[in-house]
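Annotators were shown the component list below and the corresponding predicted structure, then asked to write short factual statements about the assembly.
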Amino acid sequence: MTHPSDTGPAPVLALQGISKSFGAVRALRDVSFELFPGEVHAIAGENGAGKSTLIKTLAGVHRPDSGQVLLDGAPTVFHGPADARDAGIAVIYQEPTLFPDLSIAENIFMGRQPRRALGRIDHKATHEATLALMQRLGVELDPDRPARGLSIADQQIVEIAKALSFDARVLIMDEPTAALTGSEVARLFGVVRTLREQGSAVLFISHRLEEIFQICQRVTTLRDGAWISSEPVDGMTEDDLVRRMVGRDLDELYPKQEVEPGEIALSVRRLTREGVFTDVSFDVRRGEIVGLAGLVGAGRTEVARAVFGIDRWDAGEVDVDGKALTNGAPSTAMTAGLALVPEDRRAQGLVMDMSIERNIGLTGLRTTVKAGLVDRGAERSRSLDWAVKLQVKYARIADTVNTLSGGNQQKVVLAKWLATGPKVLIVDEPTRGIDVGTKAEVHRLLSRLAADGVAVLMISSDLPEILGMADRVLVMHEGRLTAEIPRSEATEESVMAAATGRAAA
Amino acid sequence: MADLSLSRAIRWDTVVGALLIVVLLLSFTTVDGFGNALNLSFLIGNTLPIAMIALPMTLLVVAGEIDLSVASTAGLSGAVMGALWNQGLTIEAIIPICLLLGVVCGLINGLLVTRLGLPSLAVTIGTLAAYRGIAQIVLGSDAVTDFPTQYLDFAAGRIGDSFVPQAFIPFLVLLVIAVVALHLTPFGRALYATGASEEAARFAGIRVKRQKLILFTVTGLMASLTGIFWALHYASARFDNATGLELSVVAAVLLGGIDFDGGKGTLGGAIAGVFLLGTLQNVMSLQDVSAQSQIVVTGVLLVLSVLGPRVARQISVARAGRRAASAPVPKAPTPVS
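Structure shown to annotators:
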């Protein structure tokens, strides 16, 4: 689209020299950039670069220590989120917060429904206003259907409609695609393009670099709270962008070492959980990284859960080092040397209200014991040891994990499991929602583990990750293993063909 | 901003502990008849049933569950004790039977919660009614009072002329066991994880169902022990013994900073809460406040005890928020040693 220039339209939003500190931490340092109507503008940066603080400043949650926000050229101070909203700035968060039992229309007009006489809600007017918003966004959603059961993309579209109903001119989208599947992303981007054509300004935050190139016209990069650049996306490469974000050339994103596979460490035989997956058999050898690919809902996570014992299987067998595991018993799986880094780190991987030390300690409750009591010294040194090995960035080991960024939380989950010294490590979406620098670290770690003789099973929806890291690729489709592809033959085409059930490779 | 969950709990513990000391000092100086050894022994003796059940209840609430049937289990134990005594069994034979009964009552609660996945609040309201009903069937409206004197003396007596009831010493042993179990063992550590996030606990290999089944069973056991103590302490076994005691226990435990949602709080706080409630009840009795009014006070305390820690937490979160908010984590890792 058009690149705003000096002679173009005036910026709808401009930041001038914004700084914000929390105690000794300078979250934003003299950040300035402009946002023009009709552009989708990306904010890029690693975890901790200041993106969240920037969003919260624009949303009226934080007040800058210095600098100013200009709205249509006029200096503006937000005294709270309501101020920002009234000024036409709306934030769409990663996880929408709709009332599941209310209709789409009721959700959009919650608390300010059009009224008829005697204060009764005018359902007809509500319905029609919602319909008009949906038409404006170019989507077909029935205003009267309940929010329950909407895909996350559609929930976000409802949030966008809600924002438009407040006459929002600036939409801030904070990692909107993190929890979306490919087709959902396409649907959401369709709406974003419609908004852009109607002259809205969109600030777009995503860790998926390819999305920035897909949907954005300009990108502003932050590093350590400081503004680095604002420039058109055209003519930039992903490498250019990464260099601005991390301030150096990134080490290889997929540092796969060649390892001669050893003995079979994990053997899954004809595993079946009725209605979920059927007749799944595969081996993972020591030193191998085996990728498990497939579409969302193909049953990959469910296989991992059953192998680890979270869910019971109905038929089949799982062996670790030749010894059969008990059905439905994670504690015996752990004793046998199995570790599972689950897909949802906030709900499954970590106790968010607990300290880093104790979260890592949870997997050691049976080993860091002296005379039946928790050996606190041993627990602390075990936790510190692994937090340092994985370079978790934290202030104190006794801080709760919810004070950490997503990438560092994921490192704590990894630390928690690596501390058990596993023979077999299953990682489910190990790099989802974490920044590119941390992602490379996680890959290097997995590679090193394999080189040390750990058998790694990696579930991922990130195809380049699967292709870059796996020695072999297993593909699932509708609850069955449909293909096993050696590294040399694995391509996006061959994996996708098997994942969509078009061909058995 | 150390371990927030811990520092918050400690802060509330301290508040309750300080409150207990203030109330005690005020009572000593302003309430006639409060400070003598006999009254103090009454205070402790009357509070012991709450304290005994509060031990396993604290662990249950930390793990995110609750048992409201405890008072009925205690009543049932007392009723069965009285009925068997009337049948001519010896007290030495009766007590193990009653304890076993408590184990069964707890096991039923535990199995309903863990095997059928029912919410413990609903299950134990049901068994609250059922166990009390069985107690009435067993003993009818009889009151059994003629238990052997050495047992009655032990349950009601004090050590010499001191203010310490004889039964307080065994309670201290139980308290130490509970403190060690909750705060020092892997089992206790796992309870906090389960209470804070049951799913994450399961993914860490913690055997959540087994853990809860053990807790419910121990709670039943302690409730029946309390029922036996109650019947001997007041020299009266009736089906309606200890009615409403669950209200006092839950109020005291929550007052002590055990979060109703699980995962937070310490036994020290819970016990401070128990004795704060016991002291207030004792003072009200001395001031001739009617039993009905005392229940009102307990009810109000229950509401305040849910509110108090929450307000305290919000204040500390707001403070931490002002300090850190969404500040990025410092760049360099700062490993301690």
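Statements collected:
1. Chain B is about 75% helix and 0% strand.
2. Residues 291-323 of chain B form the longest helix (33 residues).
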